[in-house]
Amino acid sequence: MFIRNSVAGICLAAGTALAQLAQPLNPASAIRFNLAPGAPVSVVSTDLGDSRIQPRGGAMILDLHATLVLRNNGSQNVRGVTLVVLAQEMTPGGKGSVAVPSLNVPPGQSFPLKINLRLLRPLPAPAGPLVKVDLDGVLFADLSFFGPNQLESRRTMTAWEMEARRDREYLKSVLAEKGAAGLQQEVFASLSRQQARPRLDVQVSRREPRAISAAVNALTTHSVSFALLKIPDSPLELLSGEARVSGDEAASPRIEVVNRSKLPVRYFEMGWIVKDSAGDQFLAGSIPASSALDAGRSATATQDRTYKFTRSSQPLAAISGMRGFVSQVEFANGQIWIPSRQDLASLLGILPPSPEEQRLTELYRTKGLPALIAELGKF
Asked: What is the pTM of this model?
């Protein structure tokens, strides 16, 4: 259901004078869509809902809460869409993106896409639309892709789709082997993991860890090696990894990998898990590396970053250990590799579920087991 278009206000500043206006905001003039010629999706309608505009200093803050309806004009089912939302190219905070995975939209059908972003635009605002929306990419059922791919959305959406297929096939196998009751128990287990999964807040900066003096730094900072999770069918093997740790901060993670496959690799990610002094384990995030890595060759990737971890706004107990595993590989030909559920079995209580697993368990929670079974039967 769409929310009727509404406007809070438009505020313009000139020097120290401030005038406030309140008027209906016309979607036709507030947003401009720059979809490339021949794009496989088109905009059917736009609803700005309770989007608001307000001044802050010399900038305009746009709280955008819009619902778009797009139509699939292609010849295949759409699996994912990524949009670039631009208020001002050169202003920090002036650009955002919206990516929607786990779609299954047949040709000719329409689907909603929500935009919830806060963007900045300098004052005074020039004439023209406040926000421009570009299409970065559309992923189809056969994993073909359309779009400029400026945000590397092809890689991201392909990995999401492969995770979706992996997790759907797993649930379908549970249904085939254990029936509806077995599927229900598997969904209960997933919902329980999602509820209990420990979460961290991570702040990333380019600074060094806390260092009041060189002497103090030498006493409090030490190197911690990654315990490496072996995944037999992974195209990359983690050889070593370490980071400099001080209390609840870790800096300059370094990993060494070797390409065991027969294909050159251009990008990979390592999943990163930290353990605190209380023995609790958390997903810290991933360490990405864009590197041309030929078959049989090894490479070392280092990030010049410091990561500060908090839990429920409180500092994390001192980091006592770390684990790493290969979580994604992109080959030079565009193919993507991800771990299987069996590979990640020991980490299911730590890792977040895929977008598709979240979608399917939410479908069960809101509509029940018959709806979930019917949904699995569509694939």
From this structure: 0.86
Which segments of the chain have a pLDDT < 50? Answer: 1-24, 211-216
CB count in 10 Å sphere of residue 281: 16
